[in-house]
Every structure is written in structure tokens, then in C-alpha cells.
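Lecture notes, unit on protein representations.

Consider one protein chain, 106 amino acids long.
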Amino acid sequence: MVGESSILVAKDSVRKEHAIGVADGVGGWADSGVNVGFYSRELMSHSVDAIQEEPKGSIDPARVLEKAHSITKAMGSSTACIIALTDQLNGYVLCQEYATGDFAQI
């Protein structure tokens, strides 16, 4: 974590699933006295919780970010990206980018 940004690394060796993510708080909130670092850290913290609640073999980055966003109470906003790495993907990576809603399967 640095300033307005936050990262997550979620690893489950038993389920053979992993996720990484980053949230970059929107600095324009500083003009209103808001520390968006709190927002991005809370968003990533809730994302870790949401990942742990995902069904085995199906971490859905979009669902994770939606759930995390819905319970984040800190003021601010952020771009965010979560990448899911699971054994079930046969070498594919699922990535959801929060700010634009873009989705990619790599």
C-alpha cells in the first residue's frame, strides 16, 4: 500500500486458486479533503473477503468487485483490477477492471 493505492494477494493452496488485485484511488477527492487511500484499502480488503466466499473453482472478478464495492463505506472512488488464477481455467486468466467494467480473458 502506498498513498492512494492498495493491492491484494489472495492465495488458497488447497483449492489451487489465487487472485491478485490493485486499486488506485482517484486523487481528485483530495480537493474535498477526502483521503481516497482509505477507500482503495477498504475496497481491496472487502475483495479478499468476497474471494474467500466464491464457489470453489470459480472466482469471478466482476462479482468480487461488485460485492466489495457494495459494502465499502469509505468516501472516495478508485479504479480497480482483479485477476483470478485458478486450476479450472486451463491456462486462462480472468481479469475485471472496475472503473470501465472492461473484462478480458487472457
